[in-house]
Amino acid sequence: MRKISIVSALILSIVAIVWATLPKSIFAAIPAIIALILAIYGLQLSKQKIQPKASAQLAILLSSIAIIFSVSKLILTPSKTEVFTKTEQKVEQDINDDESDFEEEFEDTEEHKPEDSIHTISKQK
Known about the structure:
The protein is mainly alpha-helical. It has five helices and no strands. The protein has a domain at 2-76. Helix content is 67%, strand content 0%. The termini are far apart.
């Protein structure tokens, strides 16, 4: 059981270190935490059975490095969310678009009912 936990911790910590270098490095924390737990368990078994502890310590070191890489990349990398601010829009008035000109145009015209225009057209024929 000791060898299995240490070997799996080493494999997971190496995978986590490689994954920590990729853009989505926050997901590297998951195998790194699992590797850390397995490495600590393997270290405890090594202490109980009085066996070498170097490989378990290496797994702890590698998984700690992977956790540090993934968390530091998360903290130090700026987020890509954009903040939109309201811009001031200036309303430009066209020289030809005067309301006074518009009103003057319609003052000259006479109001006709639609019936009158129909009668005048029929009378012209």
